[in-house]
């Protein structure tokens, strides 16, 4: 396929706008997923069998909810949450509106990553903290999070990459961003140049995110 550079220059303002809309969606949904998903993942871990705040009913209910949300395909979740999106943002189109569905999808995804990261910690370290009289909060703050921080950073990287893919899908329902640009100018108008440009932008963005995440994880991993 030949790339029409004149077409790219013509639509450059649209491409820039779409790119920043994608970054906005990712930024909002990532922030929400960190604020809610991190404590949710910790709670899933510490309430499990044999842990210091074991609570099987709470663990089962939270795990069930997380599994349900994670099992729903994002495009269906996007449509199903339109009433909630309208209630929260007052609209159902645009990057802010799309961020609602992105956040709901990212929270359980990141929570499971956090839970799995904590499971990698040597149980002897936790038992030693309990033996010296550490409170649950101290164990979480001084043992669990420091020990799992490199793995959690890698989990954040994976979450961001997933959000990039989800944000592109949000363009199908007018969520804005790169996906919306690809649908409106690439798919509907059979413009192969725009399709190629949007794919390249997403590939480059994912590669940069992955490299930054890998570098950060290695830098903070002192093991």
Automatic annotation (TrEMBL):
Family matches, as Gene3D superfamilies: MetI-like
Keywords (A to Z) from UniProt: Cell membrane, Membrane, Transmembrane, Transmembrane helix, Transport
Protein name in UniProt: Methionine ABC transporter permease
Recorded topology in the membrane: Multi-pass membrane protein
Record-stated family: Belongs to the binding-protein-dependent transport system permease family. CysTW subfamily.
Source organism of this protein record: Planococcus donghaensis
A Pfam family per the record: BPD_transp_1
InterPro entries per the UniProt record, alphabetical: AA_ABC_Transporter_Permease, MetI-like, MetI-like_sf
């Amino acid at each position: 396929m030949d790339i029409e550079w004149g077409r790219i220059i013509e639509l450059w303002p649209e491409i820039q706008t779409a790119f920043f809309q994608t970054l906005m969606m990712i930024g909002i949904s990532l922030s929400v997923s960190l604020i809610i998903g991190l404590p949710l993942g910790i709670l899933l871990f510490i309430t499990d069998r044999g842990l210091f705040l074991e609570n099987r009913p709470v663990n089962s209910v939270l795990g069930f909810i997380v599994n349900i949300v994670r099992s729903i395909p994002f495009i269906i979740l996007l449509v199903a949450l339109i009433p909630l999106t309208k209630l929260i943002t007052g609209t159902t189109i645009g990057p802010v509106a799309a961020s609602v569905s992105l956040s709901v999808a990212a929270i359980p995804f990141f929570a499971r990553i956090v839970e799995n990261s904590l499971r990698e910690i040597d149980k002897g370290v936790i038992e030693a903290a309990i033996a010296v009289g550490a409170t649950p909060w101290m164990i979480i703050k001084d043992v669990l999070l420091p020990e799992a921080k490199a793995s959690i950073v890698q989990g954040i990287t994976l979450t961001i990459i997933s959000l990039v893919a989800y944000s592109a899908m949000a363009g199908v329902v007018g969520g804005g961003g790169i996906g919306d640009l690809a649908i409106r100018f690439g798919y509907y108008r059979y413009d192969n140049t725009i399709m190629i440009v949007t794919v390249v932008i997403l590939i480059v963005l994912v590669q940069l995110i992955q490299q930054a995440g890998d570098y950060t994880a290695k830098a903070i991993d002192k093991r």
